[in-house]
Amino acid sequence: MRLFIAINFSNEMKAALLGCINQLADQGICCNFTANKNLHLTLAFIGETDKVSLIKNIINEIKFKPFNISLKGYGYFHDLLWIGIEHNPNLLDIAIALQNKLLENEFNIKQQIFKPHITIARKIQNNNNIKLSVPSAKCTVNKISLMKSSRINGKIVYTEIL
Known about the structure:
Shape: globular
Largest sheet: 5 strands, antiparallel
Mean pLDDT: 95
Strand order of the largest sheet: 2-6-5-4-7
Number of strands: 9
Oligomer: single chain
Strand content: 35-45%
Helix content: 25-40%
Low-confidence stretches: none
Number of helices: 3
Order of helices and strands: EHEEHEEHEEEE
């Protein structure tokens, strides 16, 4: 299974992100938009593995009190457009703890600085004229989820399995 650990959003946060996607669509931007049900914040990408029980144990070891995250700004990674998350020490602590525990358990994950972002569009052909107004939306984080990535009928589908 292709797995990753993520934060799933409240309906209100998804509505704000969908508003950003609609802004892009209204500008006639050519790209592949992220489906509303697939909007999430990746904390750790694991990739192909069958060690689901071990990953569930790692997630359960991460203890935290609920906290809020807020949208802030946008940017690009090559042909991806993302919405940023305002700096949050709690979020950073969780991402680092997950990365360290995955590495301790010999998962072959890419070690990198955590840059929280939400991909809303892929394969953007021209990002020079994009104007995007990111709303001031927030969401309470009280759970982290193990997610499975599948391709069904040619579309990417993310399913929560924990």
